[in-house]
Automatic annotation (TrEMBL):
UniProt source species: Duganella vulcania
MF-aspect GO terms: oxidoreductase activity, acting on NAD(P)H
Source taxonomy: Bacteria, Pseudomonadati, Pseudomonadota, Betaproteobacteria, Burkholderiales
Protein name (Swiss-Prot/TrEMBL): FAD-dependent oxidoreductase
Cellular component, GO, one term: cytoplasm
All copies of domain FAD/NAD(P)-binding, residue ranges: 5-302
């Protein structure tokens, strides 16, 4: 495709990887990256960890060195939004009313925070955490904060609570469901995280409904439906994200809990591809369509998209994996646990801070949650990628080295 113009829309991991892969494979035409962010693509996970704590700068979390983008065929447009896609003449309109024409278009639009409608949600001092700008706002407020409330007991909420707690701020986590992390893990692991956070000084309250966020010129408290009032000079709302699909939907692309793509990253328009948090794709390993919110998925799917653009069809087959850092704990997750009917524990969730939880559906291994257990994570991830079965009794027995537990595991 000599002379072809590829436009990538987005500023996250998927967009950055498409650009990098095209440059490395020497895309013969022009490349334009259009990002609403003011910064070059940066890593998102540190926003609720090292960047929020101040131990990392924006320069340190950039995905690629700024010099990487200084290529003659690469045009990077920051702080710029694509407002419309016109498929009939293969063009995109920008928020400055200019128009760019494409031969191939990649949508890496990611996800956006789910916003609350609680009374008082617009008060100064109420934040979400999705971008560097969000984290900057929270960091500016932290020195003036004695007490903070985090609404939402998912991974982002708990990671943020850990950073605030380590900064000496009194933190209350409010979760509407009966337990934290209820949508993604077992009762034992939910109880583990609640225990650890409380040991560190975080107050965790589950099964509660927030009635209002209160204040005059600035937030000063949160009121629950029970009538309890919780003082707070900082409120962070972490109630999930939704895929950014408006551009695709208005353009007439197939959208269903994400932009629907095939195993090669192609949308319902052969000249438009998509990658990352915004996509819904069929996963052959689990036999169903899924939408993933992870760096691994964004990066691996972006590589597949770049291959497709270059005429090299390599189907997406990666094992999903994720991680979460809280206090002195690193949680590593491989696979998807949805549909499990049994959990095998290696180690204890009721004491200490190290265990591995293996999720099974019948005799099929689905996923692992490894807490400060890197050897278990690596071994299980390899077994999942190879489709191997394993004896649950061997996994549960800590006298059996984890490598030996998987050594004779037959392939499915």
């Amino acid at each position: 495709m000599s002379g072809a113009h590829c436009i990538i829309v987005g500023g996250g991991h998927a967009a950055a990887q498409v650009v990098a892969s095209l440059c490395i494979s020497q895309w013969p035409g022009r490349i334009t990256l259009v990002s609403a962010e003011s910064y070059l693509p940066y890593q998102r996970p540190p926003l609720s960890k090292s960047y929020l704590s101040g131990s990392s700068t924006i320069e340190q979390i950039l995905i690629r060195n700024p010099d990487f983008y200084k290529k003659p065929n690469l045009d990077v447009r920051l702080a710029t939004r694509v407002t419309e896609i016109t498929r009939s003449d293969k063009s995109v309109r920008l928020d400055d009313q200019s128009t760019l024409r494409y031969d191939k278009l990649v949508l890496a639009t990611g996800a956006q925070v789910r916003r609350t409608t609680i009374d008082g949600h617009g008060l100064p001092g109420v934040f979400y955490l999705r971008s560097a700008a969000d984290a900057d706002g929270i960091r500016q407020q932290m020195p003036r904060t004695n007490k903070a409330v985090v609404i939402g007991g998912g991974y982002i909420g708990l990671e943020t609570a850990a950073v605030l707690c380590k900064a000496g701020i009194g933190v209350t986590v409010l979760e509407a469901l009966p337990r934290v992390l209820q949508r993604v893990t077992t009762e034992e692991i939910s109880a583990f995280y609640k225990r650890v956070h409380e040991e560190e000084g975080v107050r965790v309250v589950t099964g509660v409904v927030v009635k209002s966020i209160d204040g005059d010129e600035y937030v000063r408290s949160v009121t629950l439906q029970s009538g309890e009032v919780i003082d707070a000079q900082l409120v962070i709302v972490g109630i999930g994200v939704v895929a950014c699909t408006d551009l695709a939907a208005v353009a007439g692309l197939t959208v269903s809990d994400g932009i629907v793509v095939d195993e090669y990253g192609r949308t319902s328009d052969p000249d438009i591809l998509a990658a990352g948090d915004c996509t819904n794709h069929f996963n052959a390993l689990y036999g169903r369509n899924i939408r993933l919110e992870s760096v691994q998925n964004a990066t691996d799917q972006a590589k597949v998209v770049a291959d497709t653009l270059g005429g090299r069809l390599s189907p997406y087959r990666a094992i999903p994996w994720f991680w979460s850092d809280q206090f002195d704990m690193k949680l590593q997750i491989a696979g998807l646990s949805q549909g499990y009917d049994r959990v095998v524990l290696r180690g204890s969730t009721t004491e200490g801070r190290s265990f591995a939880a293996f999720y099974f559906q019948g005799d099929r291994l689905l996923a692992i949650d490894a807490l400060n257990r890197p050897k278990e994570f690596v071994a299980c991830r390899k077994a999942l990628s190879e489709g191997r079965r394993v004896d649950p009794a061997l996994l549960a027995d800590e006298l059996v080295p984890i490598q030996d537990a998987f050594a004779e595991a037959p392939q499915i």
